Amino acid sequence: MPQTPLAGPVTAASAADRARCRGAAARHASRPVALLLPGQGSQYPRMTAGLYGTVAAFTEALDEVFDAMGREGARIRADWLAEQSELPMDHVLRAQPLLFAVDYALGRTVESWGVRPAALLGHSIGELAAATLAGVFSVHDAAHVVLDRVVRLAHSPPGGMIAVAASADQLAPFLDCEVVVAAVNAPLQTVLAGPEGALRAVGERLRVRGVAVRPVPALSPFHSPAIAPYAMGATAVLASVARHSPAVPIHSCATAAPLTAREIADPVYWAAQPVAKVRFWPALQGLLASGEFSLVEAGPGRGLSLLARQHPAVRRGDSGVLPLSPRRVRGPEDEVATLDAARQALRRELEPRA
């Protein structure tokens, strides 16, 4: 597929994105960049496909992942680009490998602009993309780990996830051994997960009480005990691949702290990662307590950007938020224009000031 430099027509929506980017960049010069890498729930059909074959660095990195996945990678790529996919995009065999691949490719794209991230924060499968960008895993080994993980999880019982406008403490009376807190995304944004029937019952009880509930695009109960028997079998596979010290600090959503050398070396940590609760908000608090950052969401959608904008450090203007994907995708030109706007904003922000 031909590869050309980053370019594309500018739509009205992308012009607004450019204006916001210019404003954010003008307020703070030379803030270090931290990449936010999203996970399950951020996927949508043909996500970022408008960049493929158009943005050289993105295309090269994505093909690197698909090639490392072998024949399965070719099937995943074909399904991703097809108008009608063979498997639903929310299926574990599609969403997880594609989110990993897209997060990784967008991270490499940012690096191709001459931007060296000072920190990485990955949500769910995004943490594995962060570890690969930081050099903990090679692309080949990470691809092997991702495929092994999703094949195992594909055998887990049907289930799902729901996002609830309430705190984890407020939801405690509604939970049991089946339905649990899967993610703490913000003070009043919590994700629950569990088997299909049990999760539906909890969602109905919450709606009756006037609590806002919406489904998360997932066909599996990620980050819940329901998948633990299937996920933990990955320990032997993870023990067989090399793990290295990260070139960039990785802030863990499992521990809400930078990953330690011990955790990086522990195959059980990585095997348990799809089961462990995602503590995105505490991890973000830890990151922003360490300094001011330009938070660049390197993944599809703007879910993590919306969450990060709730943080006091961002509301004050100490740190900024910059998504690489458009709010709405009307065509491939929107994805290209939004990425170009982000590139220009980061270039201006990193320019030396007199």
Automatic annotation (TrEMBL):
Keyword Cell cycle: no
SMART domains: PKS_AT (SM00827)
Highest taxon in the source lineage: Bacteria
Domain (Malonyl-CoA:ACP transacylase (MAT)): residue spans on this chain: 36-329
A Gene Ontology molecular function term of the record: acyltransferase activity
Entries under Gene3D superfamilies matching the protein: 3.30.70.3290, Malonyl-CoA ACP transacylase, ACP-binding (3.30.70.250), Malonyl-Coenzyme A Acyl Carrier Protein, domain 2 (3.40.366.10)
Pfam families reported in the protein's UniProt record: Acyl_transf_1
Tagged with keyword Transferase: yes
Keywords: Acyltransferase, Phosphopantetheine, Phosphoprotein, Transferase
Protein's name in the database: Acyltransferase domain-containing protein
Annotated source species: Streptomyces halobius
Organism classification: Bacteria, Bacillati, Actinomycetota, Actinomycetes, Kitasatosporales
